[in-house]
Specification:
Elements: E1 2-3, H1 7-10, E2 26-27, E3 31-37, E4 43-47, H2 51-54, H3 66-69, H4 73-82, E5 91-97, E6 103-110, E7 115-122, H5 134-150, H6 154-169, E8 173-179, E9 185-192, E10 203-204, H7 211-219, E11 222-225, E12 233-237, H8 256-265, E13 269-276, E14 282-290, H9 298-343, H10 347-351, H11 355-362, E15 366-371, E16 374-379, H12 384-396, E17 402-405, H13 408-411, H14 419-422, E18 424-429, E19 437-442, E20 447-452, E21 474-479, H15 488-555, H16 561-590, E22 598-600, H17 602-612, H18 614-617, E23 622-626, E24 632-634, H19 636-653, E25 660-669, E26 672-679, H20 711-721, E27 726-731, E28 735-743
């Protein structure tokens, strides 16, 4: 036989947030406790001094059955009640009258560890703490129901609840205490008689009610401490029995550190009733305090619990109404934004078409849209570089669908410098493929928070025991680098807009994919058509040239000078048309011919090209400047056409220059091998550079420079098929420069710079 130990005895310096307060090993002295095994109903635990309730010392009764320990008429009712006990918490089971003339309120519950637990609270007749009949409680509960039904705002509801509970219980002060998201508590309503100081509007740190205490408030909504100076009564049990779980106990003893907290607060008695949401989560507490010890009957506590439940229903309805009204208002903005996005080529253009709508949607002062194509901002935001840095951090976090914070500097300390415009951030990811984000910013909201004591100054710890803080005097703190919090309706509006954007982007992608497929089919048809037409036209043009020349040879003497001139024009036109058809056929074949790549030295190809162009260089002074060129992986035949076209153009457009300068350089940069070909020829106007690589586009008159206008189109197609790109620069009368790249992945390793 032994008594269960209090947790402070097991580990005197254990942190408050780790105290096992559900197994204190003792109860408060205004009642007695008996616990039985659920299967056999044999006594396993009993509070010391329970002889007053059972007529015998409990030490000798451990292991005895219930019907022997509680003899008489009471046993039958208790045995019947055992079958109805569930996991819902304590149940009032009636009154127990002992042979000594003492009356007890019998309360039973099924403990989480499987024990059937009976508690017997003493009825202190004549002291104001005697059982309260329902006809006395009912008017107070009915009045509370009526008052809660007449008001709507959270503050009015809380005031009505505080007044009702104080009227029912007679406590000196009743507070309605709401938990914030970080578990700080705020006193939003108070009703008192002036015997205790007012705490209305004060904030208390989360550490005042640690996590395991909040968990107990969820599971067991009622807690009474009748006298802060009580002496705990140990629970006796067999050495082999585990400690008793008192989660649902009404007499459960509390940790010494909490009793010291009450003494520091100046409240000899306290009672609390939990305010629970429909999902069972903890919204807040109705907290009652008295300037002298005070016992409250179980029926009265149940009545207060009923008031708390009514308040919870009304506060939930109030919050839901406010949320629904806000969502309805924001839905109109969502619709307008969606309509503009659907009409715009890029969704960000639609979002920012009317910036006020985008900002009003979340109550932000600034917003930014960051996509792969750029960063666009509106309103008051950090500089673009900082916005991009925030987006990069979001991408590193895996691109969360929604992220909200009212203190961005807690997440990203370097944002303190822009807290004046970006203390708050609401961000949504708008792409599953690319790191794209929609960001809203809120500025710093400097405000003063009044605490119930300085939360930064807990009592100085001693090496052997815990202390709660000792001062509850109002302490004001100026809060900086925080924005107004984002409401649930605003966060949900951002989430819905994200879904809409994803839908718009997906639909646009599907339309682009469909259009791309159609274009690919059309291009294939056009390529096949151009190949067929150009192939079929070659023979007729050759026949025209051949027969015209045959006519000139055999019948030329009979033709007049004008007829011979006409015949020459026919031959020249047919030859030009033939060259055009050959070029068109070559162009169409570029898209049909498979690439056969290999590692090669461009210098060898260039030497061959220069030899083939020697007829065009006769009688001219040309200065070639060919620098070192990197090895590349390419199709040799196609790469030859690239250099042949570019060198041929350079020779053609440098006529009249003495000397003509043609320069070719190569380098390795990043992922590419880059080639630069420059000349000092006729050049071109950069205003027309976008036409340079088009089919049949000419920037000079045909009378000045011959050609069919398809060579550079061929060059671009070849380069792009190799995965590179080409661009040009020029100045009229001063020369041109052509630059093209080939992917560096094809470069030999020993050629790396």
């Amino acid at each position: 036989m032994r008594a269960e130990e209090e947790p402070s005895g097991a580990d005197p310096i254990l942190g408050c947030d780790r105290l096992p307060i559900h197994v204190p090993g003792s109860i408060q002295p205004h009642g007695h406790l008996l616990a039985f095994s659920a299967e056999s109903l044999l006594l396993t635990h009993a509070s010391e001094g329970a002889v007053a309730a059972i007529g015998a010392e409990p030490e000798g009764r451990i292991g005895d059955p219930l019907d022997q320990i509680l003899a008489g008429p009471a046993t039958e009712s208790l045995l019947a009640a055992v079958r109805h006990l569930g996991a819902a918490g304590p149940m009032q089971l009636g009154r127990l009258h002992t042979p000594g003339g003492q009356y007890y309120q019998a309360i039973g519950h099924l403990a989480p560890d499987g024990h059937v637990v009976f508690e017997f609270e003493e009825e202190a007749c004549g002291s104001g703490d005697s059982p309260t009949p329902m006809d006395v409680l009912y008017p107070g509960v009915r009045d509370a129901f009526a008052r809660l039904g007449r008001v709507a705002s959270p503050e009015q509801l809380a005031s009505a609840a505080a007044e009702a509970v104080r009227r029912i219980t007679g406590f000196d002060r009743v507070l309605v205490y709401r938990f914030e998201a970080n578990w700080d508590g705020i006193v939003m309503a108070e009703d008192g008689n002036g015997r205790l100081p007012s705490y209305l509007g004060l904030r208390f740190p989360a550490s005042d009610i640690p996590a395991q205490a909040r968990r107990l408030y969820q599971l067991n909504p009622q807690r009474l401490i009748a006298d802060v100076d009580y002496r705990p009564v140990p629970i006796l049990h067999a050495p082999s029995s585990p400690p008793l779980d008192l989660t649902f106990s009404t007499l459960r003893s509390v940790a010494p550190v909490h009793l010291e907290y009450m003494r520091n607060m100046g409240t000899p008695a306290s009672m609390s009733v939990s305010i629970l949401r429909a999902d069972g989560s903890l919204w807040g507490l109705i907290s009652c305090h008295n300037a002298t010890p005070r016992r409250v009957p179980f029926a009265t506590r149940n009545a207060c619990d009923l008031v708390a439940q009514m308040f919870a229903v009304r506060i939930a309805a109030s919050e839901e109404l406010a949320y629904s009204e806000a969502r309805a208002r924001l839905k109109g903005l969502e619709g307008r934004l969606l309509a503009r996005m659907a009409e715009a080529l890029q969704f960000e253009e639609g979002l920012l078409a009317v910036p006020a709508d985008l900002l009003t949607l979340t109550g932000a002062a600034g917003a930014a849209v960051v996509t792969e194509s750029g960063c666009r901002i509106t309103g008051r935001t950090p500089p673009e570089a900082e916005v991009r840095r925030i987006a990069a951090w979001l991408a590193e976090q895996g691109g969360p669908e929604v992220l909200e914070t009212s203190c961005l500097s807690n997440l990203l300390p370097w944002t303190e410098s822009c807290a004046d415009v970006a203390s708050g951030l609401l961000a949504v990811s708008v792409s599953k493929l690319y790191p794209s984000f929609l960001l809203w910013f809120r500025p710093e909201l400097v405000r003063t928070v009044t605490w119930g004591g300085d939360p930064r100054k807990p009592a100085e710890p001693e090496p052997t025991r815990l202390h709660p803080r000792r001062s509850f005097a109002a302490w004001a703190e100026t809060v900086r680098k925080r924005s107004a919090p984002w409401s649930a309706a605003e966060v949900e509006a951002a989430r819905d807009l994200r879904t809409a954007i994803m839908g718009v982007v997906l639909r646009a992608a599907e339309e682009r994919a469909e259009l791309t497929g159609r274009l690919e089919r059309v291009n294939k048809e056009l390529a096949a058509f151009s190949y067929s037409v150009s192939h079929d036209l070659r023979a007729p043009f050759r026949h025209i040239v051949g027969f015209a020349e045959l006519l000139r040879d055999r019948e030329g003497e009979q033709l007049s000078e004008r007829g011979q001139r006409y015949l020459g024009t026919i031959v020249e036109a047919a030859e030009t048309a033939g060259r055009l058809v050959d070029a068109l056929l070559n162009f169409s074949q570029m898209g049909r011919t498979a690439l056969v790549t290999m590692v090669l030295d461009p210098g060898l190809i260039i030497a061959e090209v220069r030899r083939s162009l020697e007829p065009d260089m006769e009688g001219r002074r040309i200065e070639w400047r060919i620098g070192p060129l990197p090895m590349v992986r390419a199709d040799p035949a196609m790469l030859r056409q690239v250099f042949e076209n570019l060198f041929s153009n350079a020779l053609k457009y440098t006529r009249g220059r003495d000397p003509a300068v043609i320069e070719l350089q190569g380098e390795l940069t990043g992922e590419d091998a880059v080639f630069h070909l420059r000349d000092n020829g006729a050049g071109f106007d950069m205003a027309y550079a976008h036409k340079l690589f088009g089919v049949f586009q000419r920037l000079h008159r045909a009378e000045e420079f011959e050609g069919v206008g398809i060579g550079l189109a061929n060059v671009r197609r070849i380069i792009e098929r190799h995965g590179g790109r080409i661009w040009a620069e020029g100045k009229l009368g001063e020369g041109a420069a052509f630059h093209f790249t080939l992917p560096r992945s094809g470069v030999l390793p020993d050629q790396d710079p």
